[in-house]
Design a protein that fits this description.
2 copies of one chain form a homodimer. Chain A is α/β, with parallel strands linked by helices and about 260 residues long. Chain A contains 7 helices and 13 strands. Chain A folds into 2 domains: about 110 residues, Cobalt-precorrin-4 Transmethylase, domain 1; about 130 residues, Tetrapyrrole methylase, C-terminal domain (Methyltransferase, Cobalt-precorrin-4 Transmethylase, Domain 2, 2-Layer Sandwich). Helices cover about 30% and strands about 25% of the residues of chain A. Chain A is elongated. The termini of chain A are far apart. The mean pLDDT of chain A is about 95. Chains A, B: Pathway: Cofactor biosynthesis; adenosylcobalamin biosynthesis.
Chain lengths: ~260, ~260
């Protein structure tokens, strides 16, 4: 095995160049290969000496194995994810492939380079809705049974967490998000704020604040990050726009306790 | 009120220059004033035309009011936080001050610039321990009653979330973290992985992986981000080091369901 190969699992941030860390940019400049889901690989500028390997959405493990094998051959491989690689992205897939794969891969020089996650970018656009204790769930039932999603939603509501949801609504299973909204309405009440942040930090960005009572499944698509407030989350009408934040502290007599 | 003043709530990332976004750097270059907790304000390089206003840790609301008042006077104000401003940082404090303060402040040009949070940086150093559903709690009982912290820990364990903890151990109340460890041991078992990531992305960085059974309160201090795995979290022995990750999927027969 070459000593010069490496594998960096790189977070590209939510979309804008202005949100890519210098550490990530530098890794992309040094890489011989960029590996990832097609639209993310296309965010890496082409240049001589760089091969871009785009693959389909459902190919995470095969893609991770390909990346590890190339690094073992001495190549400098950037596995790219949107947002942060550790949040519902390629980080876990690479380590899954590492654990199950060639023993020699464990000697590779591997680094994870964090990025601004979609959740943090969406939260920033709205104010500070995750400003106190929160949880973050992937609502896709490709990856776990629906019963577990529902259980987690109910426990998160009981804990009075603010919540952030990735993958709220897949094309193949649109009914899942309608069920999630019904569970949340029952557990948190109709008045609770819900936020839809679509394609944040891209030209298609849009955000909307409403209540669980007014929310409909069509407000989310595959590019939407959804957030639900805790019982203490506040909406503030600004002169031009509305802000949403969750206070830093819970009074001893707070609704949450 | 001047039209040219603004307030940007800026995430400086966990410590290293290489993790500050270009958007944040650009805001700091344009600001006339940087406002924040002393060690964070000191991370903004001094230059002519910039006044740095450092204040104490417990001064968040007064600091936020000062920043809003300066922006209302037409100054370009950067309120700086370590990590991301929306996660247990100045974002919520500024919106709290905005809601309670001068009505004219609501017309100000306010933006939140997200950053790489300590949680994401710590997770990256360890592999991908937050690679599936997780929650994030502030363990400081300055801000909420201990009973609520304990309730949230028990519900998070029941939901089988991976967990990230900010402020695990304050100088004034060191016993809180010992109680949290006892609750987690009871709810998750002695074998569950726990990770201590101290001062990540600074020269003092150190990380340690152990189990709840082996963990002691002294392993954390005020600069430590603590993470606990879910029931599915895996430890992989590498050639030089250990990785920790939480798989992306939960089998239908998984321990979590």
């Amino acid at each position: 095995m070459s000593n010069t190969g490496w594998l960096k699992i790189v977070g590209l941030g939510p979309g804008s160049e202005a949100l890519i860390t210098p550490e990530a940019s530098s890794a992309l400049e040094q890489a011989t290969d960029a590996v990832g889901y097609v639209p993310y690989v296309e965010r890496v500028a082409p240049r001589p000496g760089l091969t871009r390997h785009g693959s389909d959405n459902r190919e995470e493990i095969r893609r991770a194995e390909q990346a590890l094998a190339m690094a073992a051959e001495g190549r400098r491989v950037a596995v790219v994810s949107s947002g942060d690689p550790g949040v519902f992205a390629m980080g876990a897939a690479v380590f899954e492939a590492l654990e199950a794969g060639e023993p020699a891969w464990r000697a590779l020089d591997i680094q994870v380079l964090p990025g601004v996650s979609a959740m943090l970018a969406a939260s920033a656009r709205l104010g500070a809705p995750l400003g106190h204790d929160f949880c973050c769930l992937n609502l896709s039932d490709n990856l776990k049974p629906w019963a577990l999603i529902e259980k987690r939603l109910r426990l998160a509501a009981e804990a009075d967490f603010a919540m952030a949801f990735y993958n709220p609504r897949s094309r193949s299973r649109p009914e899942g998000f309608a069920r999630a909204l019904a569970v949340l309405r029952e557990a948190c009440g109709e008045a609770r704020p819900i936020m839809f942040a679509r394609a944040v930090a891209t030209p298609e960005e849009s955000v909307r604040v409403t209540t669980l009572g007014e929310a409909t499944p069509e407000m989310a698509d595959m590019r939407t990050l959804v957030m639900v407030g805790s019982s203490l989350t506040r909406r503030i009408a600004g002169a031009q726009r509305e802000w949403v934040y969750t206070p830093r502290s819970v009074p001893s007599s707070g609704a949450a306790s």
